[in-house]
Amino acid sequence: MSELASVIDVSDQTFQSEVLEESFRRPVVVDFWAGWCQPCRMIGPVLERLAEEHGGQFVLAKLDVDANPQISYTFRIQSIPAVKAFRDGRLVSEFVGAIPEQAIRQWLQPLLPSEADRLSAEGERAEREGKPEEAEHLFRQALKSDPGHVRASLQVGRLAVDRGDLEEARKVLEPLRPDPEAERLLAAISVSEWASPDGEGPLAAAERAAAEGRFQEALETFLAAVQNGRDEEKKASREAMLKIFAVLGEEDPMTQEYRRKLAAALF
After folding, report:
1. Is 40 one of the catalytic residues?
2. Which of 78, 221, 223, 251 has its CA 20 to 30 A from that of 236?
C-alpha cells in the first residue's frame, strides 16, 4: 500500500496490517459496505471524495461485508453502511447510515491530524535522519501547541533518557503514567541506575547485571530470591523483575518465560 494512498480496499486477510497497524501512522476510516446496499452507494462516493480532498491525512479503507464475514462479525456489523474510525490500533469513533456530507465533515474533524501531530511527525522524521536537536525542537513546539500531546511528550522523555538527563526524563514521563511506553522508559531509567547499587551480595550483583543488559542472569538471581529469600528480599526482587519485564516488553520471550516462573513462585 502506498504511504500516501487515500482510498484502499481491505479484506479479512489485510485488515490487521492495512487498518490496525496503519492507524498508528494516521487515522483509518473503514467503510463497511455491500454492492446490494443502496445507501452504501450514496455515502461511498462522498467518503472517497473527502479522503482525496484531505490528501492522505486519513485513509479510507473499504470493506465488502459479504466477501469478508470474519471482520464483519468481529465488529458486529448488523446494519450498513457502517463507518468506523481507528487510531493507534483502537476504534475511536463510528456512525451508521447515510448521513449528510456536512455531518460527515464534522465527524471527521476530530480525527484529522492536529498541528501538534504534524510537528511531532516532523520531529520523528528529523530523528530518523540523525538530527536529534532538530527533532527535540519540533517535539517541544508540538507541546507548545498541545501541552497534553502524549506522542511528543514520550519523544521528549526518550531523548532526555538517551542523553542521560534522567531528572528531565522523569519530569516529562511521570505524568504520562500508565501509558505503556512511559512505563517502559521509566523502568529503563530505574534499571540504568542499578549500575551502582547500594551494598553487596547476590541482589546487588543482579542489579548491576541488569544495568549492563545481562537480563537473564539478573532474572535468575531475582527469581531465586523470590523463591527462597526473606520477605523483604522477595518483595524487592519481585519489583525488580517487573521493572525488567517493562524494559524488555511484554512480547519478549524472556519476559514471557520469567513471568510464568514468577507466577509459579508466588502462587
Report:
1. yes
2. 251
Half-sphere exposure of 77 (CA within 13 A, CB side): 23
- Please check the confidence at residue 200 and state whether its pLDDT lies above 80: no
Residue whose C-alpha cell reads 509459579 in the numeric block:
264
Quick check: is 124 catalytic?
A: no
Q: What stretch of H or E contains 210?
A: helix 202-211
**DSSP for 20-31?**
IIGGGTS-EEEE
Q: What is the mean pLDDT of the chain?
A: 92
Residues in the chain: 267
CATH class of 115-176: mainly alpha
Catalytic hit among 30, 40, 154, 169: 40
> Edge to edge, what strands does the sheet with 90-96 contain?
7-9, 59-64, 28-33, 82-87, 90-96
Return the CATH architecture of domain 7-111.
3-Layer(aba) Sandwich (3.40)
Confidence tier at 196 by pLDDT (50, 70, 90): confident
CB atoms within 10 A of CB 97: 11
Say whether pTM exceeds 0.85: no
Return the domain boundaries, the chain.
7-111, 115-176, 194-266
Q: What dihedral angle (degrees, nearest 10) is formed by the CA atoms of 234, 236, 241, 244?
A: -170
Q: Residue 181's CB: how many other CB atoms inside 10 A?
A: 17
Residue of 8, 19, 37, 173 marked active site:
37
- Answer for the pair 66, 13: CB distance below 8 angstroms, yes or no: no
Q: Return d(Cα 190, Cα 211) in angstroms, integer.
A: 9
